[in-house]
Amino acid sequence: MTAQTGTATHPAITPHAEEVSRTYEEGIVAGLIGAAVIAGWFFLLDAIHGRPLYTPTVLGTALFGSARESNPFEMAIMFTFVHVLVFAMLGGLAARLLALAERDANYGFGILLLFVVFEFGFVIAGMFFAEDVLASLSWPAILVGNLLAAAAMAVYFRRHHPNLLINP
Predict the structure, then answer these.
(1) Count of domains in the chain?
(2) What's the CA gap between 102 and 100, in Å, rounded?
(3) Is the predicted pLDDT of residue 168 greater than 80, yes or no?
(4) 28 assigned to some structural domain
(5) How many CB atoms lie within 10 A of CB 151?
(6) CA–CA distance, 77 with 56 (Å, rounded to integer)
(7) d(CA 134, CA 156)
(8) If both were cysteines, with which of 31, 100, 105, 122 could 167 make a disulfide (CB 3.0 to 4.6 Å apart)?
(9) What is the rounded CA–CA span in Å between residue 98 and residue 22?
(10) Which DSSP category does 12 fall into?
(11) What is the pTM (predicted TM-score) of this model?
(12) Does residue 27 lie within any of the structural domains?
């Protein structure tokens, strides 16, 4: 009777699993970059107007309601947490779509169209459902912030997908 030594008890990670993991990791990093850029944009605008953390406080109050015990800093932190999570999910989705576009360049145009619809859909939805928030924040500032975040994410993705082709 011989004893087996050195046998693996865990199944090997498949190349597909590694690719999926890398794709979502890339997406989360891109999302964090986008969240940081838009947060920095609004921090800069708020600082110029002499009201630091105004934007995340207003958005946090709109999202969570005005709780009596919450101070503006707590509201800004709670909104920032949700903001980062949403951007990480959007980055993951974008990374997955880019992985599809690498296999079939025709998906690329769909990704661009999805971006345009999402970008303007966000502003339009804000006009209908959060008009009071848009009254206190200017929609052009929101649009510019979203475009800056998207551009930063695009630069990151371009560095990781230099051979990506997009067909109309």
Answers:
(1) 1
(2) 5
(3) no
(4) no
(5) 12
(6) 8
(7) 29
(8) 105
(9) 12
(10) P
(11) 0.79
(12) no
